[in-house]
Amino acid sequence: MAVTHSLGFPRIGARRELKQALEAYWSGKIGLSDLQESGRRLRERHWQLQGRSGIDLVPVGDFAYYDQMLNMTVLLGAVPERFDFGEETPDLDRYFELARGGKHQPAMEMTKWFDTNYHYIVPEFHRDTTFRLGTEWLFEEVEEAAALRFNPKPVLIGPLTYLYLGKAKEDGFERLALLPRLIPVYAEILRRLRDLGVVWVQMDEPALVLDLPPEWLAGYREAYRELAAAGPKILLATYFDSAAEQADLMKDLPVAGLHIDAVRGPVQVPVFLDSYPADKVLSLGLVDGRNIWRTDLGRALALAETARTRLGERLWLAPSCSLLHVPADLESESELDPEIRSWLAFAVQKLQELATVDKGLRLGVEAIRSELETQDRVLGDRAKSARVRNPAVTARLERLTEADYRRYSPFSERIALQRERLRLPVFPTTTIGSFPQTADIRKARADYRKGELNEAVYRETMRKAVREAIGKQEALGLDLLVHGEAERNDMVEYFGEQLEGFVFTRYGWVQSYGSRCVKPPIIVGDVSRPRPMTVEWISYAQRQARKPVKGMLTGPVTILQWSFVRDDQPRSATALQIALAIRDEVLDLEQAGVAAIQIDEPAIREGLPLKRRDRDDYLAWAVKAFRLASSGVADDTQIHTHMCYSEFADILPAIADLDADVITIETSRSGMDLLTAFRDFQYPNDVGPGVYDIHSPRVPAKEEMLRLLEKACEVISPERLWVNPDCGLKTRAWPEVEQAMAHMVEAARTLRQRW
Ligand code: GLN
Ligand code: ZN
């Protein structure tokens, strides 16, 4: 009775088939028609999976060879002029040029999609940007789905969200000013869809959950007034948070339906239900599209029933958001512990859950009695399971006092002691942690994992990599050394695998960008550290070195942020548990004589909640977690942290609150811009602004780095400056790294002479 639908399905394929096809195509191993055939097969399979799970309306247009935002850009004919494609509508090759860079143009920028780990390609806008109907792909896919007898519901990113997420590439103009030019093209797309027999179109407008300025909100009225007249019924979809603040506006728009996220924003459900307009359907996002836990069906059904008493047939059911952010199918996880497996639901299972709720709604709760019983048993087991609760962890957290979150002495006293202990020159040089992961290193790690390399040989291979990294750093004349991270596949997975409370899937891939996927660990239970995780490697490195070696850890917020987290306790509680485990490691490193320990927190900025009002609370516990992890050490042990990827000028007070002795940041590409914010805020501790863009194979000259450092000296007092690259060097090759580091060391030496 209730229409069930899906807002989007993971496109990469349960076995990452799209990734393989894309990479084979890019490297010339397969032709265009092979790639297109892979795409077609995946779309068909995904529609089938969704249909078979009992979904009435399947999404079309959620498929993309690279990114759904980029698909919108080419559909709207908004290719940046700098690519010089002329009047031509881009074909797939040109589309990839936009995403990956062309012969003469760097790629379009990429950034995170709201608070997810998915990256979209950022539209570029100029004052004179125009729009026109571009690629035919969406229309072709609608026909493809219809030919397969599915009921297609095209998915578009709505005009306001599209503009809002783009970037003005020119000063003195507001991208909202482009709206009047954009609306007619959207209208034309809608008319084309209508002509293909499409009844419903989903317009994703998640920007509505952000703190939008009033002129943007007014834009919604303007846009949807015109679009509603274009033909198909519009379902306006919001997700990732509550849109309650905009409920009046949304109810007032002349669209045929709204979708809201009842998982991330449960508070908005009563707000929307209250005097909900009689001419609209309301789609409730009941099943979590951002996490991998099984849904509490009883609760979902109760909520659906409440909504139905108000809405009757106008109630629709859906996952909270597109399923792009969860792995495809739990069926593949045959190696996962069955107990834990029973607690999980991936995309396919989530749609089945939705169908079950729908069945309960249609036929009464008796009709799904057995599903509910299984459900209750499983959820009950999970709540009681020893894999989840560890009383020792809870007890330790309860015993913590204020003092555990504070270093013994203030920074000014600590740094003097640290300088004495470390004996570093002014403008000390260091790196961020990883060195090139050579083919040998990767192969040894992979073979060891598969059981094809025995432990002794594996260890020796890694030790050799450590020796080489130390040897090269000493030859280069770097001051504070690192072991190089050869033994680490990934900075979160490496720790998750050694911590109690984490599990790993075999095929739990989630698209990160383009063909890139990540396999986030799952935090199932209380986190603790059974034994030291890095001490042996760092100690080994220290024994090979005459200069001090920095210990290297990933921070609690980053581990949390890049994992699937528990839904049975607040994120903050999990963060503190991870922090305790990292604290244990920090103290063991210190015990082993390590004088400087880096705790990376590159993800602290991206964890920021979407709404301003939630930010202080997040920052408070994020800072607490870092301080818990780092504050146990003596004054003369130096704590470093590292951040990259994003602008974090807006959270500098929190960054300063971390009270790390040294922070290294990414600044080279922006020409030290971020440092100005550090100065304005009077950031108190040591800073290492990156002078080498590690994303590029280009080796900057010594003079270039020197200029950046001179600029840095103008804004930060020189005795607090460190000299380092933007980030880890694992994706680079040794020859360029050695050259770049040699230039960096020379630049630091030149500065020292002047000092
Ligand atoms: N220590 C890590 C490295 O050097 C840091 C990576 C990161 O910031 N993303 O690779
Ligand atoms: Zn980094």
Automatic annotation (TrEMBL):
Gene3D superfamilies: 3.20.20.210. The keyword Cell inner membrane does not apply. Its EC number is 2.1.1.14. GO terms for biological process: methionine biosynthetic process; methylation. The active site is at 695 (proton donor). Its cofactor is Zn(2+). L-homocysteine binds at residues 432-434, 485, 600. Residues 427-749 form the Cobalamin-independent methionine synthase MetE C-terminal/archaeal domain. CDD domains: CIMS_C_terminal_like (cd03311), CIMS_N_terminal_like (cd03312). It is an enzyme of class 2 (transferase). 5-methyltetrahydropteroyltri-L-glutamate binds at residues 16-19, 112, 516-517, 562, 606. Pfam families: Meth_synt_1, Meth_synt_2. Keywords: Amino-acid biosynthesis, Metal-binding, Methionine biosynthesis, Methyltransferase, Repeat, Transferase, Zinc. Binds 1 zinc ion per subunit. InterPro entries: Cbl-indep_Met_Synth_N, Cobalamin-indep_Met_synthase, Met_Synth_C/arc, UROD/MetE-like_sf. Residues 4-309 form the Cobalamin-independent methionine synthase MetE N-terminal domain. Transmembrane segments: none annotated. Zn(2+) binds at residues 642, 644, 666, 727. Pathway: Amino-acid biosynthesis; L-methionine biosynthesis via de novo pathway; L-methionine from L-homocysteine (MetE route): step 1/1. Catalyzes the transfer of a methyl group from 5-methyltetrahydrofolate to homocysteine resulting in methionine formation. Belongs to the vitamin-B12 independent methionine synthase family. This is 5-methyltetrahydropteroyltriglutamate--homocysteine methyltransferase. It comes from Methylocaldum marinum.
